[in-house]
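Section 5: illustrative case.
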């Protein structure tokens, strides 16, 4: 029987799911709330702030009346909004994976259509014992060279020099539902050294309309290690970032990188929350990126 959907009364109504887990550990904790209709914006923002995860997804059936399905059927189309502790974001990959896991557990394995603020995407979920495998199709991608002034400001923020950048992957602005600055570094040591002041990072990201900065190191053409400062949302660093991974993958396609159709991404190691992401890259420029991983249920806040 389909469980009753009801407005949230407390944080207990929000599922806690770690997306892009590495087996039974790691992953990025996300909140997922599912109900008959989205709560008021102020309430969603307050709940996300109180939960404290980097993002919380709120989902309700997209059709008027609270359901787009017939009797006994699960809703297949959902209206979704994402909130970080400090702001609403247009798209969040790890919260989408967590939502896909929650929908699969509640309504059964399958593909669900998600209507975001400015795009329509999809997520698939498939139960695998205690975990759920999930994949999303990102919004369309695009990329452009990053302005020199922004690059210099970002290097100064993180304490890097231009000599530590990988010349094969020039700094870029990349988009796959949200805007990111991509900085590719030439060593794992440089990536591990990343640090910055949260408030200074927030000012930089807000000034340039960035959701995160994607710091990446290419261990091999199809294996990347990344870190994602998320100061714009009030979070120092994300341990797994599906939106940033999709943006990076779209940029690599634009760049003509020898990705061979997919990249694997390891993130969160330097936070003690190792996460695994896969991005499948089709040949069409600007097309959606498929990002996949597993999700594990959490007993409570991380």
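Designed sequence:
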């Amino acid at each position: 029987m389909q469980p009753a959907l009801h407005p949230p009364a407390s944080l207990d109504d929000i599922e806690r799911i770690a997306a892009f887990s590495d087996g039974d550990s790691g992953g990025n904790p996300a909140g997922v709330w599912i109900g008959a209709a989205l709560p008021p914006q102020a309430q969603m923002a307050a709940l996300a702030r109180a939960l404290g995860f980097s993002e919380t997804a709120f989902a309700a059936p997209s059709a008027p009346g609270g359901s787009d399905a017939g009797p006994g059927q699960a809703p297949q189309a959902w209206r979704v909004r994402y909130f970080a502790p400090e702001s609403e974001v247009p798209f969040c990959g790890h919260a989408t994976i967590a939502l896909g896991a929650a929908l699969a557990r509640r309504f059964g394995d399958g593909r669900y259509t998600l209507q975001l603020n400015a795009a329509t995407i999809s997520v698939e979920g498939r139960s695998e014992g205690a975990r759920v495998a999930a994949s999303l199709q990102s919004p369309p991608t695009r990329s452009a060279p990053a302005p020199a002034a922004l690059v210099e400001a970002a290097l100064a923020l993180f304490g890097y020099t231009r000599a530590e950048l990988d010349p094969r992957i020039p700094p870029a602005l990349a988009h796959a539902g949200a805007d990111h600055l991509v900085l590719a570094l030439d060593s794992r040591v440089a990536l591990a050294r990343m640090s910055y002041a949260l408030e200074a990072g927030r000012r930089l990201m807000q000034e340039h309309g960035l959701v995160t900065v994607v710091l990446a190191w290419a261990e091999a053409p199809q294996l990347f290690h990344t870190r994602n400062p998320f100061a714009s949302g009030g979070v120092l660093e994300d341990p797994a970032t599906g939106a940033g991974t999709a943006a990076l993958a779209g940029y690599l396609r634009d760049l003509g990188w020898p990705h061979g159709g997919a990249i694997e991404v390891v993130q969160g190691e330097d936070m003690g929350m190792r996460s695994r992401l896969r991005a499948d890259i089709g040949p069409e420029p600007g097309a959606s990126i498929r990002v996949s991983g597993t999700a594990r249920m959490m007993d409570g806040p991380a």
